[in-house]
Amino acid sequence: MPRYLLTFGLMLFSLALALNPDTQALLQQAQQLAQQARTQKVAPSPDAELWREAIDKASQATQLEPSAPETWQVLAGLYTETKFWSKADEAWKQYLKLQTAPDPQVLPQLATVHMNLGYAAYKQQDWTQAQTRFKAAAQYAPQDPAPQEWLGRIALEQGDFAAARGYYQTAVQIRPSEANKYFLTLSSNAQSYGADATHAFLQGYDAYTAGDKAGAQTFFARAVQAAPQWLEAKRWLARVQLEQNQTSDALATWQQIASSPQATAGDKYFLKQAQLANQYGAPAAKAYLDGVAIFPSDKNQALSLFQQATQAAPTFGEAWYWLGRSAYETKNFALAVQAYGQAVQLEPTNQEAKYWLDQAQKAAK
Fold it and tell me: What is the pTM of this model?
């Protein structure tokens, strides 16, 4: 949840005149110590000396005047800033008991505490507690999509697809990102695949985004096994197989996908990549297809990609042909002669390669 782990600075507010002078002094000292820590760029932590001293001063103030909301606000703000979430939660609860109409400036801090405690509960698979926390965060930060995204995620995990759609619809309204749109579509279709397949798919997605491709493959395979008709799960499985250089498995999976009536042009493209990867290796296939895609707009970059493809797979005749074409169009005629020559040697029936080899030889003279 890195996009939401924000630190909200402790706001400096005017202390109420009704506070005991000793309490006021402690709160002022706490604020000064916190500001000193910020100025010295001390990482916010309850274990860092300046932050620890600031928290101690604020804690003493709550003991002197436990019925004053200002004391709890300062202490809660310090715990929030130092990411001591459980203590921050306790202090904010005390503040809210005493301050029925909370200062609007503290609402983002309240939302941050609930988001982090919600995420911790989610990691422990305590769905009820996680939902409670994320709902509270949504209440305190209604324009932040993150609580809606996590509520949608939990609903998906639990197989409550109607609720998931509602949460993701709200998330899309707040932030119409591609990820939110993707999960809105996923939640709309998940009813067809069932809770087990959806849960495995989400685990695979998490593993993949965390860089654990082997784990992702296991979960995506589990999702496909639970819902063999689910093309999106198969796409992710095939993607991971190809990225792990399991070219024959990837080819078989992409063939299944491409044979479906719901197959897209993108599926046909990745089938081609899998076919080439199975023959010449994944790095050569990717470099070649990237080169073909970029050739119309950037021939020099395409040339570099075709060189990568031919170096990775010296018997890749089609890559040699495109290297010759890129070299010819960038007026590197010597390289064009070499590349077209290799293409003709590897594919003697390639009449275009023979023609352009002749043209390159003439241009090179």
Answer: 0.75
